[in-house]
Amino acid sequence: MAHIAISTLMPPTVKLKLVVTNSIPPKRGFGQSAPQKKEAATKKQQELKSVVKEVEKEVKHRKRRLHIDPEVAAKGKVDFVQVESWDGGENPEDLEKLKLKSFSPSASSFGNDLPFYEQLVKRIQLLESKGDIAVVQPRKLPPFEKWKFGEKKYVQYLVDQRAVYRALGSAIEICAAIEDSVAIFNDKLGLNRSSAIEADLTAMQKESSLSTLPEPNTQTLAYVKYIEQLANPSPGQSEEKSREKRLRLLAHIFGVNVSHLSTGMRIGAKAVECLPVLSERKAFSFYHVYPEGVKDPIKVLIAAFNQVGHLITAEDDREEVMQELPRAIQKASLLLSSLAVVE
Basic and acidic residues composition bias: which ranges (predicted)? Predict the structure, then answer.
């Protein structure tokens, strides 16, 4: 497996870069004298400090390619989207009504003749600027630095992410045989993070009081069901309607993956900082373990969507994807709900 460093934008005093080696740390405190324990503790502190360096240079590069405005993100906003209220209710139909307060890619101007990935970004910017995203009664989202990163909250976040990636993977597998644009997103790209998340959850359960994992939350289950509906035609549904669903699935592949490669990286940095168990058990595969040959998942994602653009040339087909973007962005943001609470 290729090991890719985590780099993400954090508050000015916090920086992070994770590098995994194959070395196995010695057991701590076993047969050590007091000076040796002190030296080991000092070494551990130095190692942790080394974990939180070199972010700014690499994150600027990463955000530049995702078209994310670093000035907006640096103000404490979620890098990809910001939700003004999580008060969508408990019923699946209520989950459509979350208010997206901000989408923060840079305000570059893209034309319709430019790559499809950039066209998708431009459309989201346009929707946000016109206010064409569903709203509910607003409640201010807590600043990112105040989000709760307790172990249980973080495990819930991973469980929710795993459920959605599994659903996307199954939907892609179902649709790939009949939709070339969906078939592009095969497992070789490494964008499906469910196996990496599974590895992290397994590592966190070892020598832990975490005997059983929680079920995905209500919002996540509603999203999983929706993804399944996109991949499976309804009884008696025409092929035209079925293809429209497959095209809409592309918007969700976009939303989930861009969210992970921007906001998700920031979350990973904060989680490693706040939860020593992640470093101790190397439970951060979600953010940096990819198949051999995948050196830069952002480049992979952008290239894949640009390839989609070569296959979807009809204006109506492209518009079908574009029309689904608000819902896709909204549902991707729901996956943050377990963490977006005041500590």
Answer: 36-48
